Amino acid sequence: MSEDSKEAFCPKPLNLTRLRRASAGSLSSAMSPARPCAPEVLGRLNWLTPLLPPLLLLLLLCPRASLGDCRPPPDMPNAQASLNGLTSFPEGSLVTYTCNQGFTKLPNKADTVFCLKGDVWSEIEEFCNRSCDVPTRLLFASLQDIYNSQNYFPPGTVVEYDCRRGYTRNYSLPKTLTCLQNFTWSKPEEFCNKKSCPNPGEILNGHVNITTDILFGGLLTFSCNTGYKLVGVTSTYCLVSGNSVDWGDPFPECQGSPPTSNVTPAPQKPTTVDVSATRSTAVPRLTTPSHASTPTGKGTPSAEVEEEFLRPPQMLYVGQLRHRSQGLVGNLGASSV
């Protein structure tokens, strides 16, 4: 490069003689140091040229926190922040903490922080502390409503229960539980007893079987005697009915007739009529006009009647007596014609 070209890019150093002659007004500007020429500056930066692309890429991938976002929120005792894998949070971001196992959030204490302007998180106080778990759930009693919305039970807390439907209060025992110093609940006593259903008795031509008892939740089963059919339910439970308890279904009936016996009845003895033995004088004697013998050689009807009535007394079957009586009446009628 020629001297003229260099002078075009880099001015010559100031002449001190000229500076002395310069006026006071232009002295300050004349004394300003000469800036290095562009070729010299670029020459000094040539070693940075290969590093420019990686530096630009690193700048693009740099986390936003470097641009003014909040860093991860502060740690809190006995709690963990829900970060969802993030390492920086823009202004207005919200982060919620969760108490560690065995610790409970204190009532009216915040468990959330906000990212404010200037890489600052909102203030938060310790909000997790040891507590008993939710009070014990009991089969015979329910926790009073006032405690259902409560989740913090420090040692010494006392909770009360009410008997469930189907149970009656046993006033000899307390209906409370207490959170102990080891953060467990006291052992509950059975301060509610089951109510009793009415005595089922028996069903006609059948049986009522009590499987356990007749208290709330008890079970009955039904069966019929041989030859009878069960009409209705085969079982029923003792259930809640209003403010009391009762059997859940109407009792069944046993309908039908007992089976006939297969034993052949013994033959009955024939019934006899004891005709008193009397003399012929006590027997009515029927006299009729005499007639000649019939061509058949038999006697006349009058003779047959007389013979029948004068026959010696004997034991006659009822059927024979009836048959003979009818025969005699018939003979009498024929003889009168």
Assess the beta-strand content as a share of residues: 15-25%
Q: What fold name stands as the CATH topology of the largest domain?
A: Complement Module, domain 1
Largest sheet: 4 strands, antiparallel
**Number of DSSP strands?**
19
Describe it.
The chain is α+β, with helices and mostly antiparallel strands and 337 residues long. The protein folds into 5 domains: 58 residues, no CATH class; 65 residues, Ribbon (Complement Module, domain 1), CATH 2.10.70; 54 residues, Complement Module, domain 1, CATH 2.10.70.10; 50 residues, Complement Module, domain 1 (Ribbon), CATH 2.10.70; 63 residues, no CATH class. The chain has 7 helices and 19 strands. The strands form 7 sheets. It has a 4-stranded antiparallel beta sheet, with no helix packed on it. A 4-stranded antiparallel beta sheet has the order 12-13-15-16, with no helix packed on it. The protein has a 3-stranded antiparallel beta sheet with strand order 7-8-10, with no helix packed on it. β15 and β16 form a beta hairpin. α6 runs antiparallel to α7. The longest helix has 18 residues. The radius of gyration is 64 Å and the shape is elongated. It starts with a helix and ends with a helix. The relative contact order is 0.06. This is CD55 molecule (Cromer blood group). InterPro entries: SEZ6_CSMD_C4BPB_Regulators (IPR051277), Sushi/SCR/CCP_sf (IPR035976), Sushi_SCR_CCP_dom (IPR000436).
